[in-house]
Write a structure and sequence with these properties.
521 residues, alpha/beta, Aldehyde Dehydrogenase, Chain A, domain 2, seven-stranded mixed β-sheet, five-stranded parallel β-sheet, 15 helices, 35% helix, 20% strand, binds NADP nicotinamide-adenine-dinucleotide phosphate
């Protein structure tokens, strides 16, 4: 059986004790073991800061971008290997594995090209400069400069490839070395990615380290030049955010937590229209893609009451075509949940939703998967629920069932009530609004825009190029207020600022402009 290793202090570390098993979710067979036992976190942090940080600060954005492009290329060359590991350890279909793995290489490449676009500077200007004295000789300019510490990246189990890459891309481009910690249960893919990058000698030593297993004690080694970026449940996020050492030393912490994302159907959208076709396709995909184990999945669907029967029927028609089972069976379109505890939480969570909503499609329980041994595998079918009394359904707005589960809720079709319903989620990563009426969409955004980090505006005009709301594109911010953690990642160059310190420069205009924009000096 494979034993996953960590890579710290410029070398591989293999533990000899306190192992946790990893499983194939489709067969429940043990496939690997993980432990971080014996890692000296203080030394690991010191090595990253001194070796990785020093190497990166020698480079401008353009050269760091070259490193990211080399990472993307090396990983893409091993794509099939990574897809197989993803199928094995996450239980997802090949198509869903691609969503994660190609998302990783694509995001690395995006930030690689962005670095080349920014150029050779080591500072990123923040806004325009301005005159501070009687003339422009005394000049002021804000800019960003890389922090001198290490970025600790703690990721969720559902995106072992993309989660690692999207965080690493931003930190490395900003000039910070990374210690990446994948969720233990699906660490196989991330470990292989780091192995590939090491074998290919893509990065100077210390820029990218890996801890497979527990990071107990790591956060205590950090100081005010370091950064923590976390993705996972709000409970763990709260624990990390309130860690004493991080608070005492003002260590920046970015939290991407869970989210009761929603789709809002505008009153102008009627069955048969192009926008209706788009929303049915996309919502059904958001429910089933990656077996619903996506932080951006649609959990609540708000639909004008006179259209709720139509939408229910249309969604059931699409969801009924889903074949749940082993990703190795060619007929299967949706794989397993990733762990036994995720399955238990899905069953228990759906039972709680059923107290205030009614199941209109699916089982709400484990099923045998197509192509899998009877009684084995963590399979849970697409499940659609419907609320009748929206005044008494708090659980639907509060409980994230991290599985292919979504709930239909009627509303009166007005923008104020749509905004109110959206807000009941307490802050989401993404909300999709399907409407061709710009005035109505504007009204909804003005009233409820601050409750979501991203709005996906589905309409007839963009339908031919639409990606669906679940894709976290590197160009757009990923992160949302309140319950979603209050964090912000991606969004092109905006992602870099977490890893940099903003400084105000005051001096001669010539010197400041030469420093911040060397290409044009
Ligand atoms: P989780 O149980 O909170 O774990 C997340 C990560 O935190 C894992 O790497 C875990 O490591 C680590 N961790 C746990 N306790 C820790 C501690 N005391 N100190 C440091 N690290 C600790 O979440 P999950 O089950 O992996 O992920 C599912 C959740 O993530 C869902 O709620 C989903 O909505 C959310 N999610 C959010 C986003 C987003 O972008 N907002 C994206 C994906 C997922 P171990 O695995 O070793 O315990």
């Amino acid at each position: 059986m494979k034993t996953l290793r960590s890579h710290v202090g410029g070398a591989w570390h293999q533990a000899s004790d306190r192992f946790v098993p990893l499983f194939d979710p489709s067969s429940e067979e043990e496939i690997a073991q993980v432990s971080s036992d014996g890692i000296d976190f203080e030394s690991a942090v010191a090595y990253s800061r001194s070796h990785g940080g020093a190497s990166l600060r020698e480079l401008g954005y353009s050269q760091r971008g070259e490193l990211l492009l080399a990472m993307s290329k090396a990983l893409h060359q091993c794509r099939d290997d990574l897809l197989e590991l993803s199928i094995l350890n996450s239980g997802v279909t090949r198509k869903d594995a691609k969503f994660d793995v190609d998302g990783a290489t694509g995001t690395l490449a995006y930030y690689g090209y962005l670095g080349k676009e920014i150029g050779d500077s080591k500072f990123l200007p923040d806004g325009d400069g301005e005159e501070l004295g009687r003339s422009s000789r005394f000049w002021g300019q804000h800019c960003w400069v890389a922090r001198n510490g290490v970025a600790i990246h703690i990721n969720a189990f559902n995106f072992p490839a993309w989660g690692f890459a999207e965080k690493a891309a931003a930190a490395i481009l900003a000039g910070m070395p990374v210690i990446s910690k994948p969720a233990t249960s699906t660490a196989l893919v991330t470990e292989r990615m780091i192995e590939i990058l090491n074998d290919e000698e893509v990065l100077p030593s210390g820029i990218l380290s890996l801890v497979c297993g527990s990071v107990e004690g790591l956060l205590e080694s950090l100081d005010g030049q370091d950064v923590v970026a976390f993705t996972g449940s709000s409970g763990t996020g709260f624990m990390i955010r309130s860690q004493e050492n991080l608070l005492r030393r003002s260590v920046p912490v970015n939290i991407e937590a869970d989210s009761l994302n929603c789709a809002v159907i505008g009153p102008d959208v009627s069955p048969g229209s192009e926008t209706w076709g788009l929303l049915v396709r996309e919502i059904a995909r958001e429910i089933t893609q990656k077996s619903g184990q996506k932080c951006t999945a649609v959990r609540r669907i708000f639909v004008p009451e006179e259209r709720i029967d139509d939408l229910q029927e249309a969604l059931i028609e699409v969801l009924s075509t889903t074949v749940t089972g082993s990703p190795r069976d060619p007929s299967v379109t949706m794989g397993a949940l990733s762990t036994a505890s995720q399955l238990a939480a899905a069953v228990e969570g759906t039972a709680r939703l059923v107290q205030k909503a009614q199941i209109v499609h699916g089982e709400g329980t484990r099923i045998d998967g197509v192509g899998a041994k009877p009684g084995k595998g963590w399979f849970f079918p697409p499940t659609l629920l419907r609320v009748t009394d929206t005044s008494d359904c708090d659980v639907v707005h509060d409980l994230e069932v991290f599985a292919p589960v979504s709930t239909l809720l009627p509303y009166d079709g007005s923008a104020p009530e749509a905004a109110c319903s959206l807000a009941r989620g307490g802050g989401t990563l993404v909300s999709s609004i399907y409407s061709d009426d710009t005035g109505w969409v504007g009204d909804l955004l003005a009233r409820g825009g601050s409750f979501s980090g991203r709005f996906y505006l589905g309409s007839e005009k963009m339908a031919s190029q639409a990606t669906g709301s679940g894709v976290a594109l590197p160009q757009s911010q990923h992160g949302g207020p309140g319950r979603a953690g209050g964090g912000s990642e991606l969004g092109a160059a905006r992602a870099l600022t977490l890893y940099m310190q903003r400084i105000a420069l005051q001096g001669s205009r010539r010197m400041i402009e030469d420093l911040t924009n060397p290409r044009e000096s």
